[in-house]
Amino acid sequence: xxxxxxxxxxxxxxxxxxxxxxxxxxxxxxxxxxxxxxxxxxxxxxxxxxxxxxxxxxxxxxxxxxxxxxxxxxxxxxxxxxxxxxxxxxxxxxxxxxxxxxxxxxxxxxxxxxxxxxxxxxxxxxxxxxx
Length: 131
What we know:
CATH topology: Hypothetical Protein Ychn, Chain: A
Organism: Cohnella ginsengisoli
CATH superfamily: DsrEFH-like
Protein name: DsrE/DsrF/DrsH-like family protein
Structural class: alpha/beta
Strand order of the largest sheet: 4-3-2-1-5
Strand content: 15-25%
Helix content: 25-40%
Order of helices and strands: EHEHHEHEHE
Distance between the termini: 26 Å
Number of strands: 5
Low-confidence stretches: none
Pfam family, one: DrsE_2
Number of helices: 5
C-alpha cells in the first residue's frame, strides 16, 4: 500500500510554511502521494507576493539569519520543490471568496477547490497533519 499524506495549512507565518513544506517535500521524496489544503491565513504560503515575505513570530527575527546561514531553501524554493515532486496544492475556494482573492493571486500550478475536494483525497490518507 502506498503512503498518502494529507496536510491542512491554516496558518500563514514563516515557521508554518517551513513545517508544511518540509513535511510535504520529505514525504513526496519518499514516493508518498501528498496534498496540501491551504485555508484562511494558510493561503499566504502560496500567495504570489505574500509567500516571499512571511512573518516571523515576535522576538524571533534572528531565526531568519539562521535559516540563511544553514543554507535552508527559501519558501519560494520549497514551494517549487514541492511542485516538482508532485505535491498537490489546493487553495480553499470558500476562503478565497471570503477574502475576495482570485486564482491569479496565487502561484501557478495550484488547484482551487472546497473542503470536499480535499476530503476526497484525505479520506484514505495514512497520515493527516494540520499546521
